[in-house]
Amino acid sequence: MTACTVSRADIDKAIAFHGHTCPGLVIGIRAAELALQRLGRLAPPDMLAITETDMCGVDAIQVLTGCTYGKGNLIHRDLGKMAFSFFDRRDGHGLRVVLKRTSREPAHEDYVRATDRLAEGTATAADRALVAEYRASEQERLLALDLDDMFDVIPVVDGMPRPARILKSLVCEQCGESVMESRTRRFSGRTLCIPCFDAVEQKV
To answer: Which of 85, 137, 143, 179 could cysteine-pair with 96, CB 3.0–4.6 Å?
Structure first.
């Protein structure tokens, strides 16, 4: 495999959707690129993606693969891992794509301190310039990186999530709002939504 094969137009679409460009977005672009190479450009109903992180790259995956939360073919599992799984719903086969630790350049101390000051609101113009320079350099490096050097790829032949189902809604007997049946709780003989249940449940 070679450097990024995603068209400039598609990269620009991902940037526009996300609102800015950054190394995290590029990771999502490359993960989607790999999935499309391995599974083909499937029609939106036929591809399913699972992301184990909520980082910037998830926006690129939505744009490039057509997998979105609203269609029910993008699932977020909050595991804090830079890993993404992609499935062909027609046969259940897929792959799990994991970012290699060696694919990222270690951030130097000046950059780390500058990003800390950005977060605190005390960054200087020099700090902002340093952060922008590092991020731009890292993006270009990730776009040029061979996919084999960037990701570990694990074939998945079992474990594709079940298709999304439309469930009936119940009324929370505390707040009166409608809530999906599978997200209700029972407490003292009453049907409650999760926030109302959490407010009265005594266990920590």
So the answer is: 85
- Please give the domain boundaries of the chain with CATH numbers for all domains: 8-156 (3.30.1330.130), 169-200 (3.30.60)
87: exposed, middle or buried (Cβ count in 10 Å: 0-12, 13-18, 19+): buried
| Contact of 50 with 161, CB cutoff 8 Å | yes
- Asked if residues 165 and 175 have their Cβ atoms less than 8 Å apart, the reply is no
The pTM of this model reads: 0.82
Tally of residues, the chain: 204
Question: Residue 115 contacts by C-beta under 8 Å, 6 or more apart in sequence?
Answer: 107, 131
**Mean pLDDT, to the nearest integer, of 21-45?**
93
